[in-house]
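input
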Amino acid sequence: MRKQERVLSDPGMSTVEYSIGLLVAAALAMLLYSVVTGGEVAAGLLGLVRRALSFEP
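output
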């Protein structure tokens, strides 16, 4: 394989691609956190946990 072919065939992620992927993942995590900790979702999850922990035959 010639040197130019080795340079052009880069199968891995570069540092910039890795950084962009990391930023997108962090943004999605923040969005998910804000949705889950929002009023309606948090109240629904709390109600679900309370119903699961209370035993009523």
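quick obs: The longest helix spans residues 15-36.
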